[in-house]
């Protein structure tokens, strides 16, 4: 028997798209490449991690101060995403600073 022909898989290993798939229907926190962060409910995504979100809040730091924008639904380009996680208050981020301290 040729051992090289049999792929070894770890059942506890979770691939990135599988992790995102587990978040469908959940609130997620997205950190963008720019000074924006987005919190919303994930409705779906594709292989490029383009995402459809609903009940969205966008947080942005601008030269004039902070800006918070509420949106019903968005299509987010996956190319601009730096990090995605299930929403939680423990993430140190722009959103946490807005919520906890009101720093602009």
UniProtKB/TrEMBL annotation:
Record-level Gene Ontology MF annotations: RNA binding
GO cellular component terms, A-Z: Lsm1-7-Pat1 complex; spliceosomal complex; U4/U6 x U5 tri-snRNP complex; U6 snRNP
Chain ranges of the Sm domain: 15-90
Annotated localization: Nucleus
Gene3D superfamilies reported for this sequence: 2.30.30.100
GO terms classed as biological process: mRNA splicing, via spliceosome
Pfam families reported in the protein's UniProt record: LSM
Matching SMART domains: Sm
UniProt entry keywords in alphabetical sequence: Acetylation, mRNA processing, mRNA splicing, Nucleus, Ribonucleoprotein, RNA-binding, Spliceosome
Entry-linked SUPFAM superfamilies: Sm-like ribonucleoproteins
PROSITE patterns: SM
PANTHER family with a match to the protein in the record: U6 SNRNA-ASSOCIATED PROTEIN, U6 SNRNA-ASSOCIATED SM-LIKE PROTEIN LSM5
Quaternary structure annotation from Swiss-Prot or TrEMBL: LSm subunits form a heteromer with a doughnut shape.
Cited function: Plays a role in U6 snRNP assembly and function. Binds to the 3' end of U6 snRNA.
Family from the record: Belongs to the snRNP Sm proteins family.
Protein name, UniProt field: U6 snRNA-associated Sm-like protein LSm5
Source organism (scientific name): Sander lucioperca
